Amino acid sequence: MQYFVYGRDRPGGFGLKVSLTEEHWAFMDGYADALIARGPTLTEDGEETTGSLHIVDLPDVVAARSFAYDEPYYRAGVFDEILLCRFDKRVGTTMWDFTSTVEGHRRFLVLTQDEPRPVESPYLIMYGDLLDLTEDTHLGRAALVEARDARHAAVLLSAKLTDVHPWEFGGRRD
């Protein structure tokens, strides 16, 4: 089962987050084979993070909660809140299928509460429905996209009520 885990950084927590980066990556190394997408959301200028996104394939809700709440950033108080949902992926790709960015585009995380609609676009990295952990209650949709700017990222999904965040691929820089 796939889970969507998005920790929103608390104001003023960037320095603490930076100090825990190696501990965070070591924790994520234990889930390397299960990660479908990962990476930080960023301020508009890209200088600081605003959150941390992971889409991960885990056996059950207990494992998903452990992933979300045993993570070093969460334990240290970096996050203001965590969005933890089941993720019903609607495309057959992972972020690793997109090794380069289209010239003139940036990557974005788009969250919306609109009803699910099929989306097809060469700029779509990941797309799926957000569902309650224990029921099939639809909570919204999430997408990772490439677009010129945040407005175009929302338009790509035909989304009305959106929360758009600059996003980049995460993980160790080898």
Walk me through the structure.
With 174 residues, this protein is of the alpha+beta class. The protein has five helices and eight strands. It has helices at residues 14-19, 21-29, 61-69, 72-76, 150-156; strands at 2-9, 35-42, 49-57, 79-89, 106-112, 124-131, 138-147, 162-166. The protein has an eight-stranded antiparallel beta sheet with strand order 2-3-1-4-6-7-5-8. Strand 2 and strand 3 (49-57) form a beta hairpin. The longest helix is centred in the N-terminal third of the chain and has 9 residues, at 21-29. It is globular and about 35 Å long. 35% of the residues are buried.
List keywords for this structure.
174 residues, alpha+beta, 8 strands, 38% strand, globular
Q: Tell me what portion of residues adopts beta-strand conformation.
A: 35-45%
Helix and strand run: EHHEEHHEEEEHE
Largest sheet: 8 strands, antiparallel
Structural class: alpha+beta
Question: How far is the N terminus from the C terminus?
Answer: 29 Å
Question: In total, how many beta strands?
Answer: 8
Give the rounded overall mean pLDDT. Answer: 89
Q: Please bin the fraction of helical residues.
A: 10-25%
Number of helices: 5
Described by its quaternary structure, the protein is single chain
What is the 3D form? Answer: globular
Quick structural summary:
This protein is of the alpha+beta class and 174 residues long.
SSE blueprint:
Blueprint: E1 2-9, H1 14-19, H2 21-29, E2 35-42, E3 49-57, H3 61-69, H4 72-76, E4 79-89, E5 106-112, E6 124-131, E7 138-147, H5 150-156, E8 162-166
Antiparallel strand pairs: 1-3, 1-4, 2-3, 4-6, 5-7, 5-8, 6-7
